[in-house]
Amino acid sequence: MKIITTHDKDFKTQFDELLARGAMDMDSVSTIVASLLSEIKNEGNTALKAQIARFDRWQPKEDDELVVSTSEMERAYHALDTQLREALHLAYDRIESYHQKLMPRSWFDFEDNGTMLGQKVTPVDRAGLYIPGGKAAYPSSLLMNAIPATVAGVKEIVVCTPTPDNEINELLLAACHLCKVTKVFKVGGASAIGAMAYGTSTIPKVDVITGPGNIFVATAKKLVYGEVNIDMIAGPSEIGILADSGAKPSYIAIDLLSQAEHDEMASSILITTDKALAYAVSDEVEKQLQTLSRQSIARKSIEERGAIIVTDTINEAIELMNTIAPEHLEVMTSNPMELLPKIKHAGAIFLGAYTPEPIGDYLAGPNHTLPTGGSAKFYSPLSVDHFLKKSSIIAMSQEGLHAIGEACVLIAHTEGLSAHEESVRMRLRDV
């Protein structure tokens, strides 16, 4: 695994390459995606079925072939191994409990003169969840998207998932039943985003679309934003690890590989103050690579998009990690809580040697849908907030309006908006 230090002559060049890790060439696919979206917007199910035949290698002849029945989901759930079913229920309970604590509340503030100001929190009517499908389907992604929507109070949840060769993942169906999702459709990629954004005669139009996907999905979400809301534009998975001399090399190595095995484009970065640890981790990575089922994927990720950076001080390490703003950040130091106030930018922060990133992927409780590619500087993890909207509440009493009305009239007059000015002045004259 590549080891660099902040004293290397070409450090800035190498570090800039790491900062560009999440770059997706959306321009290269935007024309294709825009065309697919336009077809669905104008032709509905006709275009949708043609696109499924083109990309998923099967031809739906009737509209109802796009629909997964609730009985299929129920059968998949009851066919689960007992231990796996219990594990999914544990994950559900922990994710639900965490997201319940995130729920904002409506509030109202009453002034002495009778004026009332406040905020009303309301869930969207319908949420669309995009869940990657096929042989690599992840039931955890369904839980992480459906549970916060349910906690937020969304009444109708729509799930779209690709089904190559018309084969749907049974674990995903079981998770849908567990989450009480009843509307599941066999469509993936940009086609699914278009169907949920514009609606067809079979797939209802939604208000917000969440969930991960490839560059075509990410580009489609970007293009339909404004027609619907979206959670974020997510890229390849990534992990950053801050470690000092007391960290265990084998733990660090396997955690770096836990992201590398996702995708050749995934990024795994260790920043440490200890050069000996850096070399020990590099050796461990090579050793552990030999045993991975997805060795070729992980190796390409580590070799092309992974790095170990050695700094002089822990503050310098934190500064570099804040610049990277990783999706996942593990802090493997002797005093992780003391460093927490200095960490500004990360999607999820894992503190201590016994908090590996994969525990967050499945059932710690916080969401695993996180900002990538440095967008943790301005995006937050998926949460109930993505399925809620807020309305301002204003109720002025006559006394309250008289207290601030003249100032409002003055500003309206200054801006040259005479109807605005007269709207308030008329009421001020009405004693």
Describe this protein's structure:
The chain has 431 residues and is of the alpha/beta class. It is built from 17 helices and 15 strands. The chain has a 6-stranded parallel β-sheet, sandwiched between helices. It has a 6-stranded mixed β-sheet with strand order 2-7-6-5-8-9, sandwiched between helices. A 3-stranded antiparallel β-sheet has the order 3-4-15, with no helix packed on it. α14 links the parallel β13 and β14. It is globular and about 85 Å long. The termini are far apart. The mean pLDDT is 96.
Number of domains: 3
CATH homologous superfamily caption of the largest domain: Nitrogenase molybdenum iron protein domain
Query: What would you call the shape?
Result: globular
Q: What would CATH call the class of the largest domain?
A: Alpha Beta
Poorly predicted regions are none
- CATH topology of the largest domain, anyone? Rossmann fold
Which radius of gyration do the C-alpha atoms yield? 25 Å
Sheet with the most strands? 6 strands, parallel
Percent strand equals 15-25%
Topology, pairings included?
Blueprint: E1 3-5, H1 11-19, H2 27-43, H3 45-55, E2 67-68, H4 70-78, H5 82-101, E3 107-110, E4 116-123, E5 126-130, H6 139-152, E6 156-161, H7 170-178, E7 183-186, H8 189-198, E8 208-210, H9 215-224, E9 229-230, E10 238-243, H10 249-260, E11 267-272, H11 275-289, H12 295-305, E12 306-310, H13 314-324, E13 328-332, H14 336-339, E14 348-351, H15 357-362, E15 388-395, H16 398-414, H17 418-429
Parallel strand pairs: 1-12, 5-6, 5-8, 6-7, 8-9, 10-11, 10-13, 11-12, 13-14
Antiparallel strand pairs: 2-7, 3-4, 4-15
Helix pairs in contact: 2-3, 2-8, 2-9, 4-7, 5-6, 6-7, 8-9, 10-11, 10-12, 16-17
